[in-house]
Amino acid sequence: MLGFVMAAVAILAAFGPRAGTSHAMQGAERRFARARGHIIVSLLATGAFLLVLLVTASLALATDTKPDGNPFVLVVLLGSAVASTVGLMLSGLGLSLAVIERSKGHSIPI
Taking a C-beta distance cutoff of 8 angstroms, is the pair 40, 9 a contact? Predict the structure, then answer.
């Protein structure tokens, strides 16, 4: 999952603003570029939650000696899992919309 997040960030970073012919198209392209920037931030936050999940689970497996586990670690794991799942779903939707918009030959002013 971390690899997917980093690949998606690299794809979105490659989508620079296109040069528009009219003032309305330039404004729309600026809004699309800003939206892609927000998707990148969302993907990076999701990657951070995935990293917390990975590190916490690895440390818990290596150091936990109690049979019932540690409630603090469980809360951190569940919170990171939910946050990363929601982040991946929303960022994936945003990435697909950005790719669809970019694959068009022109931008539609909003």
Answer: yes
* Helices (H), ranges, the chain: 2-14, 23-63, 71-103
Environment class of 53 (CB within 10 Å of its CB; exposed 0-12, middle 13-18, buried 19+): buried
Residues 16-72 have pLDDT tens digits of: 666 666 777 777 778 888 888 888 888 889 989 999 999 999 998 888 877 787 888
**Cα–Cα distance between 34 and 14 in angstroms, integer?**
14
Q: Which is it for the CA torsion 25, 105, 18, 100, positive or negative?
A: positive
Q: Is the pTM of this model over 0.70?
A: yes
